[in-house]
Design a protein that fits this description.
94 residues; single chain; Apc36109-like_dom_sf; mainly alpha
């Protein structure tokens, strides 16, 4: 019988993995998925996971992704696209 704690761990792990995959496949702000290691954006997964897990809204997640694009990755960024990605994250259900 699965305990509640193990259920939460599995749920959180699945959510974490789903967010990580969205960042890799959908966000990918520098567009290098086909030439860099799979872990290129994994450094940002904990931040976005925490936002999702604590109930942050789409705009907060989008703004965070956009700030990462500009401040950390040094790209122009696209807030509207970040909103689309944030919407996918907000709609994740586990």
């Amino acid at each position: 019988m699965q305990t509640f704690i193990s259920f939460l761990k599995t749920k959180n792990h699945n959510l974490y993995e789903a967010i990580d995959l969205i960042l890799w496949k959908d966000w990918a702000p520098i567009g290098v998925n086909n030439i860099v290691p799979r872990d290129e954006y994994q450094i940002y997964t904990p931040t976005i996971f925490e936002l999702k897990n604590t109930g942050s809204d789409k705009e907060t997640i989008a703004q965070t992704l956009h700030e990462i694009e500009i401040a950390t990755l040094g790209v122009v960024g696209n807030i509207e696209y970040c909103r689309q990605v944030a919407n996918k994250i907000i709609n994740l259900k586990f």
